[in-house]
Design goal:
The protein is an alpha+beta fold. The protein has 10 helices and 9 strands.
Length: 277
């Protein structure tokens, strides 16, 4: 099958019309800083990033997809996808009834070596591959492995309330802003107590946790583009790299360098370390 440019994918294929429960497409021509306008399809979609950082945006949040991870988008969900820097990805489309226990909401998934190899193998199939025999057995194994893929917490929930949106957009524009929750409450015209309650209702987390999650998302985006830990820490408003590393370790269970290296995301150049409204 001819590789498809990620930018051309929605135009080149009507995936819902392909009469197979599972379709895997190889967007192997490296594209830079592309974006797909809001769209949806009946089939659920897995986008696996081989190179570069992908963002998937839906009404309730933004999912960050670093290399060797994937974003899962349930069928019928309106979403926008974009690539940051040079990207290479694989797209898996699945009919909703193909297998039980697949995620029912958007999430970022870790891709095991076995799942990765199954995805790569399936890209060589004809679009209308035989529904019995070797291809069908490999697809069944792929779905089994997909159903076991662990969730990576690289999601930034975005509130819908216009006042909270003002806060979120302000921090996205200036992540180093150290304005307190009390001051933000005054800026957007609510009490501190109301702000706390609204954030828990719409984002499911406190103000402090939401800001930390924002920093995780933005730091991974910057680190995979080659920025140093020191530069990222300063850009996010930390006094030192050690303060940022401590925050990252508490949130992700390991420091940035180890987290990225384990996912094959480290850059070999200049000592740099190589994330969804």
């Amino acid at each position: 099958m001819e590789p498809i440019c990620a930018n051309d994918l929605p135009l080149a294929w009507d995936v819902d019309s392909i009469a197979r429960q599972v379709t895997v497409l190889n967007a192997s021509r490296v594209a830079k800083d592309w974006e797909h306008a809001p769209h949806q399809h009946r089939k659920a979609q897995l986008i696996y990033s081989v190179r570069g950082v992908l963002n998937c945006e839906v009404a309730t949040g933004v999912w960050v997809v670093p290399p060797q991870c994937a974003v899962w988008i349930p069928g019928g969900v309106l979403h926008t996808t974009r690539g940051s820097g040079e990207t290479e990805c694989y797209c898996l489309f699945v009919e909703p009834e193909a297998i039980e226990n697949l995620p029912t909401a958007c999430c970022t998934l870790a891709v095991s070596p076995l799942l990765r190899e199954l995805l790569l193998k399936a890209t060589a199939f004809e679009v209308l591959y035989p529904q019995n025999g070797r291809e069908a057995r490999l697809i069944a194994a792929l779905l089994d492995e997909l159903s076991e893929a662990p969730v990576e917490y690289l999601h930034l929930p975005m509130p819908r309330d216009p006042r909270l949106r003002q806060l979120a957009q302000g921090l996205l524009a200036n992540p180093a802003d150290k304005t307190t929750m009390d001051e933000w409450a005054r800026r957007i015209g609510v009490s501190e107590r109301s702000l706390s309650r609204l954030l828990m209702q719409e984002a499911g987390m406190s103000f402090g946790r939401w800001r930390r999650q924002l920093h995780i998302v933005l730091s991974l985006q910057r680190l995979t583009q080659g920025e140093s830990v020191q530069a990222v820490a300063l850009a996010l408003g930390y006094e030192s790299a050690s303060g940022f590393v401590t925050m990252f370790r508490k949130a992700m269970g390991k420091p940035p360098a180890r987290y990225l290296i384990e996912r094959g995301m480290a850059s070999g150049s200049a000592g740099a370390i190589v994330l969804g409204t």
